[in-house]
Sequence to fold (367 residues):
Amino acid sequence: MKTRVLIVDDEQEFVEALSERLSLRDYDVTTSSSGRDAAENVAQYNYDVVVLDVLMPDMDGVETLKRIKGAKPLTEVIMLTGHATVETAIEGMKLGAYDYLMKPCKDDELFDKIDKASAKKAEHEERIREAKVKEIVSSPRSVLSS
Amino acid sequence: MGEALETLSEEGFQFFGKVTASVTHEIKNALAVIRENAGLMEDLISMGERKGGLDPARIQALAGKIGKQAMKADGIVQNMNRFAHSMDEPVAELDLGDTLRLLAALSGRIAAMHGVVFETRVPDAPVRLKTNPFFMETLLWGCLEFAMVAAGPEKRLALVLEEVETGARIRVTGVRVAEEVEGPEFPPERHNDLHRVLGAEVRLAPSRDEIIIELPKVACL
Fold:
């Protein structure tokens, strides 16, 4: 299955180019131009990784991150930052972001981080599945009650 | 005067720091767009080499986008350079219309973060003042910062410059400051020294929908 990526940035030309580059590499890409739109998208659809700009009008990156994690805790978030906002990116990591990258970012670094973040999410989901199977095996009646 | 100088320096450093951080962020954004479009161009060329079917019009369009962003970054750097040079002389004659246009341009990213758009309306003939250019920018920036926070629902702020007998008047229109709501004090007390040194008078209009800045032709520095 393709990795589902949501890119969130108010810089339209950046989003367009990055989105096409990811699509060429076989990622399933969606874009949002604001934090509010991104939070609504995440609540409605499932993404593996969100690439999120830290500094945006209307809703900043940290608030958007909180909403994303509140709606879909397993979705991994990579924060993009100019150097002036590294502190915000670090705050984001404390709030559960997978990692951060500085703009302009090296190609391999971004693609590599997206892959690793997606793998982490898949592993986490697998562990949850295993725990559920264990629960069913140890107590088959739990299936009926759940 | 020592204490006043300290206050002026502190205000000036804060202003310089904010503008530099915002401008370098804008440059980073332009570089990020250049980087991604250059990367996309490489991707398409290498795909074309492998599979054939390279579209020259597409490559040309991407080159155009890169060129546009390079020019945008160049404009930002030029503005930053002009701003840095405003510290060259303690007293100089300046064209206030130019200063307003420069500040509006420098505020680009910060204004966007507030969802605010600036428009400058200046007379055709230059309005010249003899003053300290950097302190003048610091004073005007303080007013613009307040205006961005206090912008009315249309989020459109106009910087209207008029030549008056005593010097110049700037009106910042489009603000809406409610009396009953507690907000940042304006003009802030910490700007008193700045106003005094520049001979400026800054106030909110009685209608509380515009900021009025009166400036003398020659500041008594």
User: Anything to note?
Assistant: Chain A is about 55% helix and 15% strand. The mean pLDDT of chain A is 91. Residues 40 and 126 of chain A are 26 Å apart (CA to CA). Residues 4-145 of chain A form a domain with the Rossmann fold fold (CATH 3.40.50.2300).
